[in-house]
Amino acid sequence: MPAQLHVLRAWRRAAAVVALVALLGLAAWVLLRPEPAIAFAERDWVVLADVDNASGEAVFDDSLQRALLMSLEQSRYVNVLSSSKVSESRDLLRVPTGRVLDRELASDVAAREGARMVLAPSIRQSAGHYLVSVDLLDPASRAVVRRYRAKADASTDVMAAVDDVVGQLRAGLGESVASVQQSVPLPQASTANLQALKSFALAEHALGRRRFSESAKLYEAAIDADPDFAMAHIGLAKLLVRLEQRAEAQPHLARALSVNQRLPHRERLYLKAWSNELSPDSWPLDDWRVLADVYPDSFAGLSNTSWYLLTDNRFDDAEPYARAAAVPQDPMRSYPIAHLGWIQLGTNRYDEALRSFELSEQLTGRPVSDPRADVLIAMRRYKEAQDLLAQLSKPRDELQAMMNVRVRVLLAADQDDCTGMGEALASEPTPTESADFRVHAELMRAVVDTACQQGSAETLAGIATQLRPLLAAGNHPSLPDRALRLLSLVYLAQRQGDHALADRLLAEYGPLLLKQKNPMIGKWRTVVQAMQKVGQGAPAQGVALLKPLMDGTEPVQARVALREAYRQLGDVGEFHKQNEWLFANRGRAIAEIANTQLMQALNVHDTVSDATLR
Description:
Largest sheet: 6 strands, mixed
Shape: elongated
Oligomer: single chain
Radius of gyration: 31 Å
Distance between the termini: 129 Å
Structural class: alpha/beta
Strand content: 5-15%
């Protein structure tokens, strides 16, 4: 055979092999090629439409929506527009309240808010199983871009199907496979019990509206349905803390901690912060800040970081965190918006504070307390403040009742009206459910006595008697609050001239106070130690103790104590410097929130009294 023919045949065999390989490669690429990329960037927003429940089972109405949210919240790539922002957009679009957020309306909301995609979920029964699907819609064209589906053989498998669908969705939007695979399976991260999930969803909604009793019952219903539902235990624990029932919150936190490994990483950080909240020497600022920094879209981390910075009088540090949480995407943004109000009040930005408090109250319905009154008092618009207080609803619990008394006392104190302060104290019944609140109410009375120069050694001794058994509970989660109340009692005793009681309490509880991590406890301990020196006729030692505190975060009463020390020293220049600071920080005197704003009335009293060197 000619050599050329051998070469030709060899070439044709090689060409055939190449063609076959190419054909197989093409077939593999067709089968395995990735879906065309969607114009979706990391942290873009989506609108989640209401579930189209064609299954005939009402239990899926709220539970499936919540399951989708919980699964999506594990993503650091996709952001879901909050229900509060959707509601605002609906109002602007003049949509009837009863209309469901179907795919058409969700597309309108997405177009208005600049969200990139609409997620339209549905569930239906087909051939003996459940079919869970999510359609991905382009809000501009309303066209279905992609559809993701998963089957569940029984209702108990629906949560796993939701996880499957959301995993497909996240990958389809461009999130890395590794990131999706790191997520904890939904039934493990939350619950496989649909009724528990529905109750939890309703509890969170009620909490956002500050309907605390309703929220507590719904959390309890979720726990009854699934005793190991960690997020429901955490939800009830945080609500009980809000209601100052910290001891009652501890068993729920312990149950959540026992199933800690079931939770996604973000929820584990969240649980760690709450665990610190309930420790007897708590100061959880760093835990909340870690959550906020690691997960910048964690509104709980941002909001609680702002709160603790605000508690420590670090107004400038608190503001960026509060602003980051006070966005429409946060379903509980009424809280960080209120934090902004206190920050603005504390920095004498009264008009801004009024707007923030007004918005916060609008988001929660008719108020049972209204901090706009605090701002109006700071602005000396007393008639408007009085009218506002007259419009308040009946308090829902003892804490709200106590806060209403607080602001009424403040209104009278700023007008140097001792009769009005006494009437304010009597405007609500004395707390009966909480021993801590009873002590606080008595301390408010002692504050009024101090401001009106009507000191009562009997009242102070009675408060000390009530405090002793509370302070003896060394592992109680309310111990930091009780330590602050103890320091307040010591300070009020010093102001009323009962130095013997003050000295005894300081000596007895000095070791307990030293163990506390709350920086405000440390600052107040220094204040009362300085006042002790002043009372002993050693004002220079008092000044030496107080001067290092003056970094802008000191309690207002530290300035009052420093002024008194300079009075005793006869230092006219320094005495007037403290007067000037007190006059210039009127908003701060009212906005200081530590110890449930106990010292407000005395703060405003001291900004206008004792202004001369005798």
